[in-house]
Design a protein that fits this description.
The complex is a heterodimer of chains A (about 300) and B (about 425). Chain A has about 300 residues and is mainly alpha-helical. Chain A has one domain: Orthogonal Bundle (MetI-like fold). Chain A has 14 helices and 2 strands, in the order H-E-E-H-H-H-H-H-H-H-H-H-H-H-H-H. A two-stranded antiparallel sheet of chain A has the order 1-2. In chain A, strand 1 and strand 2 form a beta hairpin. Chain B has about 425 residues and is of the alpha/beta class. Chain B folds into 2 domains: about 40-150 and about 310-360, D-Maltodextrin-Binding Protein, domain 2, CATH 3.40.190.10; about 155-305 and about 385-430, 3-Layer(aba) Sandwich (D-Maltodextrin-Binding Protein, domain 2). In chain B, about 45% of the residues lie in helices and about 15% in strands. Chain B has helices at about 5-25, 50-65, 80-90, 100-105, 115-120, 120-125, 130-135, 160-165, 175-185, 210-215, 235-250, 280-285, 320-330, 335-345, 350-360, 370-375, 390-405, 410-430, and strands at about 40-45, 65-75, 95-100, 140, 140-145, 145-150, 155-160, 200, 270-275, 290-295, 305-315, 380. In chain B, strands 1, 2, 3, 6, 11 and 12 form a 6-stranded mixed sheet that branches. In chain B, helix 2 links the parallel strand 1 and strand 2 (about 65-75). The radius of gyration of chain B is 25 Å and the shape is globular. Classes of the chains: A mainly alpha (about 300), B alpha/beta (about 425).
Chain lengths: ~300, ~425
Amino acid sequence: MNARRAQLLWFWLFAGPAVLGFACFSLWPMLYSLWLSFCRYEVVAPPAFIGLRNYSYLLKSDPAFWPSIKVTLFFTAVQMPLSILGALGVALLLNQPVRGRGFWRSVYFLPSILPQAASAAVFVYIFQADGGLLNRVLGLVGIAGPAWNTSPTWALPVLVIVSLWSFGYPMVIFLSGLQSVPRELYEAAHIDGAGAWARFRHVTLPLISPVLFFNIVMGIIGALKVFDLAYAYGAAQGLEPGGPARATLFYGLNLYQQAFTYFHMGLASAMAWLLFAVIMAITWLNFRLGRRWVHYGD
Amino acid sequence: MNLRHREPLLWSAIVALAVAGFWWAGRAPAPEPADGRKVITWISFITPLRDYYEAEVAAFERAHPNVHVRIIWAPQSEYHMKFKTLAAAGQAPDLFYSGDVWLRYLMPFMRDLTPLVKRDDAEIGLDDYFPPIRAAMQQDGRYYVLPETTNVALLYYNRRLFAEAGLAEPNEAWTWTDLVRAGQKLTHTERDGQPGVWGCSRVEGWWGEWLIYVRQAGGKVFSPDGKRCTLDSPEAVAGLKFFAEKSSRYGISAPAGFEPLNGFVNQRVAMIVGGHTNYWPNYNQVPALDWDVQILPAGPASRRGGELAIAGYAMSKTARYPEETWQLLKFLTRRETVAEVVARGGIAVRRSVAEAHLRNLRPSDRPRHMAAVYHQMDFADPIPRDAHFIELMLKIVQAEIDRMILGELTPEEAGRRAAAAANAFLATFGSSDS
């Protein structure tokens, strides 16, 4: 066996299990779900090809499809920037040489490791209309608070607030980015008369732009795929997740219900491929726009 | 042939091996016990009665030494997913939970029990089941389910709050007008440091209450052929209107979202229309809660319309040992089991058990007025038999009802929008009869 053959053999020996796993557990289910998206398949009978009817129903007739898009886009547009700003702000604070820095880093990271269901149950009680903590506090100053959890106007903003509670992962990534900024650059800027804002604007921000870009891309993808938050929050209230009046029916939750509550696997597959296409398009756009402001230092 | 040329062959072999392995693992039947007994699989919710069912199965196995019952316990929220996944993999459990609510939905998996029911009628005692229960066990005149218990929509009320308001307790002649009149006298805001009370609950998020009013006003969810949603009919709209006006006009129910948590248990809500027997054990854990039940108040068109739902067991079409599975099914729904379920706070599906239950009621038992429970069965109907009913109601119709009680839509608009959306769904996915 010559060197090239041996190299090829070793390559497949090491890469083979991973490639096989990917082919069996990712590629094959993806291709199968693409096929299912053109079928009526409700598990009880074999898939039946129906062409584009699933896509047509979703786009033209499904009363839940467009509301779920609207909910998801609103959440993404509001939650992602707030979450990024919050994570960056706290990371900047935790990057300062203060006493007990490790302790505070742990404290701010803690909400991220709490189970979503547990924190949802706590927030349901905080935002409860009758006797909830927030409305009691508002009542002390003469304000009659609304039915936060069950008002279509407030239910989604409440979920944005609940989700902002935990930004541990982007915060840690920002921290690592901040720690990689050379101190000399700050010293040079300081000597040149740059103030705190100018140092942040012209030194910190450009140097952590790859990290910021990564967090924005992941934040958008995460927000577009939100499921567990809405599910846990609805369940904690003992209500059908997604209500009231579809005000918290996120796209991911809608997809889950179609697939695993009502077993419209064909319809759910069509939804999954539409989401895939949207995420790909937004990510592509992000990368295109990112070229203008992300600095990789080369 | 060099390695590069052999590569596709190698890969084909690996993939074929993997696929064969998955197929074998998925299709291989559950291993039989070494002692040669026949294995029956039974999928069940995880329930507070788990210990009781396991004891029942042990008793069954003692009576049938050639059978071993393998119970698959699934959390209630994952039950249908687990069941369908097993069925899709060709491993549907031999025995599974079903009720009339799920009957049309699970029918593709169900064995027609009619020949077995008729063969063993003397042992089962079909006449012992209340007539509406017997009707709920069937689809198109064929038996598919043997029931263990049932839920009947009722009027629940707090006796103490009625006495404090100087009101006589609800009686069998009550109508919607009486419900509103009593509700208004019971409703009061915070006074003497005590929290306020709402006259009547309003069930939000599902059809538990509004469907009663729609039916009692003469409306129906579907056209007689089951192919069209008719929630936009004037009768159905009248029912929806009453549901909305309980808060907006009569002021007997809290505005949407403002009902106190566990209001009935905490004695801040005096009445519930509909309710569920599953909550009885919770109510009875609160000694200060003096509650009772009555048949539902009559609507403008009818007293009928309260929901009756059965819970029981069905046999899979693919049951490996149908005779043994049938024996287990009968065992789990026999009089003794029904009596045990009743003793733990359920409602009897069998007349003989109900009569014994009524005879043996103690003054401390809640509800006191058990006779009303069985009387209500005369006015109760199962939910419409459409495989998509639950989805249509929860995912499509309920959003419009939510918007109606929030004041965003009039009852006419809610009925029209709900019917239009449901009909678009039915046009795509078909009704059960299409």
